[in-house]
Amino acid sequence: MRMRWLGKTGLQVSEICCGIGSFGGLDHFKATGDLSQAEADHIVNVAIDAGVNFFNTAEHYSHGIAEQMLGKALGPSRKDVVIISKVSHFINLDENTAGTHLYPRQL
After folding, report:
1. Long-range pairs for 26-33 at CB < 8 Å and ≥24 separation?
2. Of these residues, 23, 54, 55, 61, which one is catalytic?
3. pLDDT tens digits for range 84-104
């Protein structure tokens, strides 16, 4: 696997990043995949065996289930990988679950 420097962080990441949007399959993410924990474990292990050390997630993938599944799949390998995440959609407008709200709450 070819590696690249991640900006000026001093980290080297694989050129291939493994996205986990298909883990969990809740709500509209069912259309992209409905993978079980066993299937997620297999994908993560195959990726790591191929030299991938870079994983992409987001807090809204299956309402956070995908991130939990990635954590379980990585297990002790977590210390050897780089995980990037992003924040975008509001999960619940009544809670500050997506960082700084662009739309103020109605009082």
Report:
1. 26/62, 26/63, 26/65, 27/62, 27/63, 29/61, 29/62, 29/66
2. 61
3. 988 765 555 555 555 444 444
